[in-house]
Structures are given as structure tokens and as C-alpha cells.
Amino acid sequence: MPKNSKVTQREQSHEHVTESVADLLAHEEPLDYKSSSLNVGGAAGKKGPQIEVPENDGRPAWNSKLQYILAQVGFSVGLGNVWRFPYLCQKNGGGAYLVPYFILLLIIGIPLFFLELAVGQKIRRGSIGVWNYVCPRLGGIGMSSLMVCGFVGLYYNVIIGWSIFYFFQSFQYPLPWSDCPIRKNGTLAIVEPECEKSSATTYFWYRQTLNTTSTIAESGGLNVKMTLSLLVAWIIVCLAVIKGIASSGKVMYFSSLFPYVVLFCFLVRGLMLKGSVDGIAHMFTPKLEKMLEPQVWREAATQVFFALGLGFGGVIAFSSYNKIDNNCHFDAVLVSFINFFTSILATLVVFAVLGFKANIMNEKCVVENAEKILGYLNSNVLSHDLIPPHVNFSHLTSSDYNEMYQVIKTVKEGSFTQLGLEPCVLEDELNKSVQGTGLAFIAFTEAMTHFPASPFWSVMFFFMLINLGLGSMIGTMTGITTPVLDTYKVQKELFTVCCCIIAFFCGLLFVQRSGNYFVTMFDDYSAGLPLTVVVILENLSVAWIYGTKRFMQDLEDMLGFRPSRIYFYLWKYVSPICLIVLISATVIEMTISPPGYNAWVQELAQERFQSYPPWALTMCFALIVLAMLPLPVVFIARHFNLMSDGSNKLSVSYRKTMMKDMSNLEEQDEARFILGAKSGDAPSSGPGRRAYLTPGGNKTLDPNSLSPNSCYGTSYQNAAIISPPKSKNYRVNT
């Protein structure tokens, strides 16, 4: 019997009690089933009771709302905003790409982000506990999220390691990737052939940084410099998350805000450079015909999906440390729009700098080809009559060269190709789209070599990349540690350190000389399809199994207001349909595109596409299978009662709240017994058979139907209400 029941209180009292139970009942307050905390299907038009969560439930909490928002922003705003979004924008129609991206952000991104924030805040658990609560049979969703977080964290921290290496290399003038190295051959000094065929920044990346092999099959052994950089990266991540949100929350104040300082500095500096306006104009010139291509919408949906970090578990984990009445709807809209405007800001910066670089490359092209033309004029291969009279080779502009180029091409039509002249068109330079490591470690670094005070800007840029990566890694690690710490009683610090040590040794795969190819493999196969499947199952489990109306009622209880009805239709119909289309398009894309990677061929000094060997192809599909394996395994195990439903691992706050509810029910049962009624003779809305808000309206649910195997997050309600034996002359004596 609960300690706070009135009968128990009197038994523990030192007073001599001789009253009859009937006398005791005269002092009892009348029972109001409609206001019972378990009657969530109360009278129409009345606001449901607020869910009470004890303040001292032992779960850590954010120090402030700002700290929480910065954590969510730091997790969602990552390297993809800087080197993926600008590339997609340029590739898919410039300014026209923003239209499908914004539409999909509204109908997929914000609703699903809001859904993850809400379930994490309501249930106050990590991804495993949340989906065990919503639907035990789909509890594998949380485990799949954890698997994907593990795969992504392994290679994502390698990228941070690369940034750390470049960061320390930036403290010298001139920058080490400014010029090609000179090789001494006896008394002769020649430029390194591999560098001369490519460029100084490309050579520094592939040869001096990665020292990459020509195929994925050639391991080449460990790269010592990259191994040390990876070790430093894991030490930083471990220190940031070792105390949970107590340590990571403080780190977020800097790691989330500093990238914006750097981006604004780069934007101001970039706009002062020659050619920056050309880059920005090229970027945002809309190609409206691109909007009709399905591929553009698919890539926009994928970018929205990954930009917000959906399915990783980090969003749910961060939200689980909030107060139960926090306005998570406002948070979802705010973080989503911050993410969107950050992508636009990064795009402005990237193309301002790339516009400057394109002008430098175009001027270099003009000078080199003008020297060829002068040589042909001096050797009488070309006639001086072909040169327009106003052209001055000492101050040759791009327009003058283009005019001269067109004249020579027209007159020498038959032998023009033998002259080896290039058109040197600025538009062609701007159309050389790059993304990922090619943008950050080759194109951007090359542009910075032409900046005044280039080491300063290089230090700032790579320090920004480190902080962007660190914010995302903190969210990824939280998506791993929070579900495990919620589910199992392990020491937080010890578990975090063990995770980082294991991850470092597993990450050695990516710091061998062929490691760059494994980073590409994991990036392509470990997250894309599995995360899309995870998110659609999250959507379906809440909207169709738990019930959208039921979930909307929970939101009203938490927030104090009912969210817009548009969310009902988005969660129930629009988002699932869009996600199914996205999954279908992803599978088709994987089927028709040959699996492979771009290998750096040292002899040719250029990249060449190569197909994966059979063992690597097996590894690709193993990543997909391993990430999604918990979904069918948990479903089958719980369907045949081979696995616990996880109800014994509910959050402390939920258990305390339910104990309070059960205490009230037991007092009600005592009253009915003393009055001579059977414990089962209760009103229809009472504890025996409670009215519950279902998608179809108010429906009476039998508590016995809420079994661990049924997909309702109410397995804790299976506790039986035990009635005392019948007795008419019951007296309480001490």
C-alpha cells in the first residue's frame, strides 16, 4: 500500500485510533473521476491535466534555454552547411534551388524535427527508451539510430582530424600549399612532376597530407600524421562530452557561436576581393527550368533531412534534458530557420571567395595563352594582322583576349586545335563545381593563398571547421551515450572514455594511406538509406500506431496550447508519402549508379573513378544491413516474447508520476470496498475501464489490452490493482 494513503498514514501514527472506517470516510474528499490524472479523455472542451514531472527526478537539465538552443544549433549546423549546400545550390539551378529546398523544409524538415523534439521532451529518454515507450515492437528504431551514430562518428571525427592538421600547418608563411615543392636531381632542381601536373593545393592534400594510394585495395600502412591528428580529435571530443550536458553545454557556447563570427568575417573580406560579386551573381542567378527536374527535389529533400540531423538520436537526446513544459514547437521552428539561413550565409561566403579565385585563375589563363600567341607571332605561325589594333599585350584584359581568340579561331579554323589555345572564359571557371573535401581542402585553401595575411585567414577557416565538426560530434556522441546510460546502470565518465578509446582504434581504418576511400564509403552507405528508413518508422509509429490525435493531445498537455492542425495532416499523410518517395528514389539511385569511388592516380596526377572490388562491395552492403538489422530483430523478438519490452527501464519521472496515480487509484479502491462494492464496480471512466482519447475520439480501452507487445507506450499500466479481502466490520486499531 502506498505510503501516502490515508489508511497507512493512520497506521504509522502514534495516536490511539478507534474510529470506524465509516467515520474515516466522512473526512474523505469526494472522488472526481473526470479530473483523474489517468483520464486523458476527459470532458470535451476542458483542457487536459498538466503532466507533472518532479523537479528532483535525478535527470540532468540544461542550465539555460540559450545553452539548449546552441546545442541543437551546433548539432544541426555542421560541415554539410559549408561544403555540401553551396555545391547543391550551384548544381541545381542557383537561386532556383532555394525554392524546392524551402518548400521541403516546411513540409518535411520542421514537422519531423518538431516530432523528435516533442517525443524526447515528453518521455525524457534517449532514442532507445523513447521508441520502446511509443511502440515496444519498433524499439529497434532507437538501436538503429545508435548504430548509425557509431558509424558516422567514426569517419566524421577523421574529418575533424584533417582540419586539425591543416590548422597547425597554417601557422607559417608562406602557407605550405602555396607553391609546388622543388626536387633536386643532382645539380638540377625540378618541380615535383605530380604537383606540376595538378596544382600546389591538390598535391599538398593528396600527397603530403593523405599520402594516398592509387586504389582502395592498397592499404599502404598507417599515416602517422593523420593518426596523431585523429588521436587529438578524439581527446577533444571525449573531454567535451565526458560530463554529459554539464560539459558539452559549456563547450557549445563557443563551438556554436564562433563559426558565425568567422563566416561574417569571411563575407566582409570576400566582398572586398576582386571578382567576388561575379561569384555571388553566378551563384544566385536562377535557372528556373531546373525546378522541373525530379533529381533536384530528391537532392533538396536529402539535404533537408541531413541538415537537421533527423534520425541520429542527438535531437531526441538533447530534448530529453528539457523541462516537460518547454515550448519545443518554438525551438523546432527557430533551429530550422537558423540552419537554413546559415546555409545561405555559407553559400555567400563560398562563392564570394570562389569568384575571387575564378578571376585569379582566369587572369592566369589569359597571361599564359597570351605568351603562346606572342610566340606564334614571333615565329610567324600567326600574322600580326590577326591582332586587333587596340590590343596591348602589356595590359591585356579578358575581353581583349576573348576578341583575339575568336578572330584566330575563325581564321585558323583548320589548324586551330594544334595551337593549343584555351578560351579563358570566367563562366567556365565558376562552373567548376566542387564539394566536400575538394572544396575545403583544395579550392578554398587555394583561394586563401592569394589573400593578404593568408596564414591568419587559414587559421580562422580551419578553426571554424573544427568547431563546426565538434558541435556535430557532440550531438552524435550524445545520441550514443544518452540511450545507453538511460537503459543500463553504467558510470557516465567510464562509459564515455571507453567509447572514445574503442572509436579511436576502429578509426585507424580511416588513417591508413587508403583511408580517404573508406571515408567516402562510410559517407555513402552507412547513413543515407538506414537513416531514411529510421525516420519514416519514427513518423509512422507516432502518427499511425501511437495515434496522431493522441499525440496532439500530449502536446497540448505539455505546451499549454494545441499546435496548428496542419501538423496533423503533415505527420499523418504528407511526411510519410514524401519519405516513401525519397526512399524509393534513393534505392533506384543506388541501383542504377555503379558503386565506386574517385581514386587519385599518382602517375596521372588526377582523379579517376574506380569500381569497388568484391570485398569492398560486400562491406558497403554490410554497413546498410548492420545499421538496419535491429529493426527486424527487435520486432521478431518482442512479437514472440523473447525480449523484455523495456517497461522496467522507464524514466524516473514517469515512474514517480505513475506511482502517484496508482496511489490515488488504490485509495479509490479502498473506498469502494468499504462501502460494500466490488473493486470492479467502478464508473466507466474510472480506473477499471478508462476512457482514452484515440484517433477516432473517446474510446474505452481495456487495460489488459495494453500488453508489452501492443504498440502503445503504456506497458507500465499493466500493474494490477489488488483489492483487499471483503470485510464488513473493518476497524483500524493500533
UniProtKB/TrEMBL annotation:
It is found in: Membrane. Its main location: membrane. Residues 677-704 are annotated as: Disordered. Signal peptide: none annotated. It comes from the Eukaryota. The chain crosses the membrane at residues 68-86, 98-119, 146-168, 228-246, 253-272, 300-321, 333-354, 456-482, 494-513, 525-546, 567-592, 612-637. Na(+) binds at G74, V77, N81, N339, L468, S472. GO terms for cellular component: plasma membrane; synaptic vesicle. Keywords: Glycoprotein, Membrane, Metal-binding, Sodium, Symport, Transmembrane, Transmembrane helix, Transport. GO terms for molecular function: metal ion binding; symporter activity. Pfam families: SNF. It is a multi-pass membrane protein. PROSITE patterns: NA_NEUROTRAN_SYMP_1 (PS00610), NA_NEUROTRAN_SYMP_2 (PS00754), NA_NEUROTRAN_SYMP_3 (PS50267). One of its GO terms (biological process) is sodium ion transmembrane transport. Belongs to the sodium:neurotransmitter symporter (SNF) (TC 2.A.22) family. This is Transporter.
